[in-house]
């Protein structure tokens, strides 16, 4: 049995697989987000307790020996811990917006641009650079008390195993890593005013260990840490060949394209995620809001998730003139452009508009945002899709039409699956990767609807340009 652990933003999951990649069982536990005045935080103890609960529940359900475990989790944010790996304060989430004023300053004075040209990382308020600078300015006591500024999965790995504090190149990619040397760029640390906090950055390593008498896993279990959830999902869907892409329709709408071309001269947006293979990167355009935008609209209109497919069938492409720019995150947008003050817009609504119109317009808006990101990331090959949104067949058909290409839909716990494949690679365990990453369905676009959405996409881009102008004035 192989176990993948995925410490998500709102849900912690553990999945068990057999040696062919068949998903045997899944355990999940929700974790809370605390939102107040632009601050988005998580209780680290709650997160870690949830990890233990899903592991204990999973291993008790399937009492087979655990040959190997892999760990992944949400990226970015700041998880401050002391020398024993214990929380100094609640974690600042990747969704946090408190550092937007610092980012505004860096956008204006050229720091943002310089950092991108050195690292391929387009900073956003919830990434470690701005957050650490904010803490240094407004809450220095927290940094004084901390030994390390970790990422989510690293905190969990440290607690599970007692292993020395490390991170991997994927999490380190934003915003301090030089993707060519795969080491921290001290000039970037200096540009962000953090040279005196340089010691908080975790060492970059290849963290693998064996759990002997630690929590959550049977004694003797081999476990590897990382990569974080976006590159883990790429592994779990088989997206490794240059030009192939992945769209993750989850809380974050993430677009990834595998590449061997490191172009730091392009538009300063998204990031290059370093992978376990030197010279191979994922060009990532992780938009801030995916299913979270639809969740907000559903909650506001009183519609349940299981009603979405039927409602999408009630209204035609174009949603009877209703349009949604789906930029709902309190920290604005980070891909395929950075606009900290951008907010969602709903237009074309009248007394004749229906709930179905609102739902379809939201799904279409998310689809247009995905198309924008994938084009910017350089998609030329096949496209895989995973995430919670894949549970809606009607939404997948709509996405295929909006994107104008077939979708390789991979269902199940894709991040956990990728974590196992990464662990197998690191420990030298031979698994049939093609079998582990086989799609569950292929959704083809409808030619007529795809043609309609080509024009509608141009309209989306025009409205977005106007909204970005308003956000800056």
Helix content: 25-40%
Annotated CATH architecture of the largest domain: 2-Layer Sandwich
Task: Please identify the structural class as seen in this structure.
Answer: alpha+beta
Q: Could you give a short account of the major beta sheet?
A: 7 strands, mixed
Form type: globular
Number of strands: 22
Class of the largest domain, according to the CATH hierarchy? Alpha Beta
Mean model confidence by pLDDT: 94
Count every helix, treating DSSP H or I runs of 4 or more residues as helices: 16
Total separate domains: 2
**How large, in whole angstroms, is the Cα Rg?**
21 Å
How much β-strand is present in the residues?
A: 15-25%
User: Could you name the CATH topology of the largest domain?
Assistant: Nucleotidyltransferase, domain 5
Q: State the distance separating the first and last CA atoms.
A: 56 Å
- CATH superfamily of the largest domain, by name, is ATPase, nucleotide binding domain
**Low confidence ranges:** none
Strand order of the largest sheet: 16-17-15-14-20-21-22
Domain Carbohydrate kinase FGGY N-terminal: 1-204
InterPro entries: ATPase_NBD, Carb_kinase_FGGY, FGGY_C, FGGY_Carb_Kinase, FGGY_N
Domain Carbohydrate kinase FGGY C-terminal: 249-424
Organism: Streptomyces lanatus
